[in-house]
Amino acid sequence: MALKKKIATAVAGTLLSSAALIGCSAGQGGQAPAASGASKEQTATAVQPPAKITVIKPLYPGHIYHPDSELEKLVEKAANVEVTYDTPPSADYKTKLSVRLAGGDIPDIINTFSPNDPEHNALIDQGVFMPLDDLLKKFPKLKDSFSDETWSYMKNPTDGKIYGIPWMRDRGGSGVVIRRDWLDKLGLQPPKTWDEFVEVLKAFKDKDPDGNGQNDTIPLTFKDNQVSNLYAALPLFGVNPGWSPAPGDPGKLQYGLIQPAAKDMLKAFRDLRQQGLLDPDLLVGKTLGIDKFKAGKVGVLVTNVGDFRQFAVMPGMKAEILDPLERQGNIWSLTLPATPINRTNQISSKSKNPEAALRYLEYQITGGFDYIQYGVEGKTYSVQNGVKIPFADDKKDPQYNTNVGLELLQPEWLFSDTEKYTKFVSKEIAEYMIKKLDTYEKYVMYDYLRPNVTIPTLQEKSSQLRQVLEEGYTKMLLDTKVDVDKTFEEMAGKWKSGGGDKVTEEVNRLQKDKSAPSYKYRKK
């Protein structure tokens, strides 16, 4: 058999897109368990030649993919598949996916965005993906890994059918991580308000917290260079960046990114940048903010709360997650979609092996769960008193190291269990992270736009409208010569005339349910 061609690309960050991402026991010591399944027919596939399937999925900052590792071979053997991955950087993913779809080069498993994403539903309407209702009956373990509520979110608003397998949104959202050791060195307490936060940034800039004798500290940056990261700060200025009820009229939804109060956020961060308190390369540099933080160059990082696990195990760094900041009566709030689904695994309508694709997905969250999440006992972790203890990174066998690039989904129960984080950190740190997530989740701003409503103009013009906003926000932050008030009005006007007004009318006319969204993750 010819060697499979694996396509692996490095992680990069550029401006693109809006809206960002871990049981059952696997075998011990590298012995692959049998793939799960529901029928004798499925079990018989174990003696058949491995089915060839292809996958495309994005790689997010900090994630890696090791093609043809021994771990991947174990997973493929157990699931009786031969998989070829294409892993473009997340910032370039929509562009790369569009090119492949336009050329008719459609993989068996396509990792798309959430059911909220208008382009997602447009592709369903075009017949790109296969309905899975009948096939899912053959994979009860896959079906039972998600609640009935979650599956209801997956139903297409046009025909009521299920067109994908959910990849649940990680708990939490964007929070603030700070170098606690730098605070201690300068005799400072963790800031609780915006004003205190700015004073800490000034101290980090002027007082050489890393002790290298140079004025080179970056006080504040964001995880990567996507302008949408800035939207996480809007709640501090009283703005819900998504769709939410207009003040005084709960029956009318408005879009937050064009509301005048958003200018206050832009002015505040523009001022931070001009004072040298915000990373000057934000949105334009080549090095990601999360990498600068890991390199010890940054004092404060706005990133997903779950990313803290990466910093908790780094020698020479003591970081902590700040509690939500307060500013003039507003609280830093998580900005969450109306559903708990972050991405979706679609099956191509042209796939020759749809059952093999579903078998592979089912295996990832059943018999292959430990492989995908932890690696292999004795190679990447040990078991002490029934608890998996990961080796230090330099002690892990790279051929068996947990492979984020392979991962396509996670069981729903994982999001409320410390096991989600113990593959990276100790149980003590995992419990700390869960506690911080609980704190952040007390303050939430939901996007009221439901995925089960088709908004025609949004499906047609979402990319153009998003580009108008991204270009406008970028210009107002970076260009010191522009007048923010005037530029914001021009941007909002262009958004409205370019289809935004029609989208607003359709959202309010077609979405009858304008109540506040809410959901809970299924427990283990």
From TrEMBL:
It comes from Paenibacillus thalictri. It comes from the Bacteria. Keywords: Signal. Gene3D superfamilies: Periplasmic binding protein-like II. Residues 1-22 form the signal peptide. InterPro entries: Bact_solute-bd_prot1 (IPR050490), SBP (IPR006059). The keyword Transcription does not apply. SUPFAM superfamilies: Periplasmic binding protein-like II (SSF53850). It holds the Pfam family SBP_bac_1. This is Extracellular solute-binding protein.
